[in-house]
Amino acid sequence: MPELPEVEALVQDLRGRLVGRAISRVDLTAFSALKTFDPPLHALHGTLVDDVTRHGKFLDIDASGVHLVIHLARAGWIRWRDEVPALPARPNSKNPLAARVVIDDPDLDVQPGLDITEAGTRKGLAIYVVRDPQEVEGVARLGPDPLSDDFTIEVLADILQREGRKQVKGVMRMQSIIAGIGNAYSDEILHAARMSPYKPASSIEGDELQTLYDAVRGTLGDAVRRSSGLAASELKGEKKTNLAVHGKAGEKCPVCGDVVREVSFADSSLQYCATCQTGGKPLADRRTSKFLK
């Protein structure tokens, strides 16, 4: 799933490609992906792209005051194409294409564009056409952005105390609490902080609070810097290459050499290093045994 660093890199890449160019048309091929009806999709036709920004993990293309807001969900992605077919894209259940944004450039003999795709059978990709991004419920309820200047250590402390005995792993990835951090980077942040994913949020104070804050800013900031300047086609590989524990179950921890372990849930999993994060004590997998603290 694309998280804050990948979406930020997409913003930078698309801003350079789109700003000042006109949207010729938008072809919708997965009708369930469009979540709004007013303004209609064709309100984007003939508009000029003014900016590309991000709200948490939501991508926002501002075109003459009409906003095309995209949430890529678990398996969505955006691919730039130097040339798209002249004929409008058609619905095809075997094709991952959900929508295509066609760009009108009078200096070119062909039309470039964006393909918005979603792999797999579980469909969560969401496309919104709105006059204000705050009309999107998911955007309106976002918590603070962890890389903004307003996200101070005091803000993090207030969040942790407010969430009480909730596990810090769940707090870190809840978008209404902190925007942009998902399953992967919450694993990476907690590994960098040498902190158990099951640690109660309100128990994190003093030096541990500073360590966690530094891990949030450092892990995300480093990922953004590594991704900056990369094309959309390179971002997935960059992310996977630089993860320390997420998705690395059974491999060696790059810090201590212990095996990276996993806890599985109904529709997700977390990865961690017992030596680095839990004092050498493996966490119980909820599928097979009682919860261990």
From TrEMBL:
Where in this chain does the record put each Formamidopyrimidine-DNA glycosylase catalytic domain? 2-93
| Domain called FPG-type: residue spans | 244-278
Q: Which UniProt keywords apply?
A: DNA damage, DNA repair, DNA-binding, Glycosidase, Hydrolase, Lyase, Metal-binding, Multifunctional enzyme, Zinc, Zinc-finger
Top-level taxon in the UniProt lineage:
Bacteria
**SMART domains reported in the protein's UniProt record:** Fapy_DNA_glyco, H2TH
Instruction: Tell me which Gene3D superfamilies the record gives.
Output: 1.10.8.50, MutM-like, N-terminal
Name the GO terms of the biological process aspect: base-excision repair
A single GO molecular function, which one?
lyase activity
Q: Name the coenzymes or cofactors required.
A: Zn(2+)
**Catalytic reaction equation(s):** Hydrolysis of DNA containing ring-opened 7-methylguanine residues, releasing 2,6-diamino-4-hydroxy-5-(N-methyl)formamidopyrimidine
Question: Could you say which protein family the record assigns here?
Answer: Belongs to the FPG family.
Q: What is this protein called?
A: Fpg/Nei family DNA glycosylase
Annotated organism of origin: Nocardioides glacieisoli
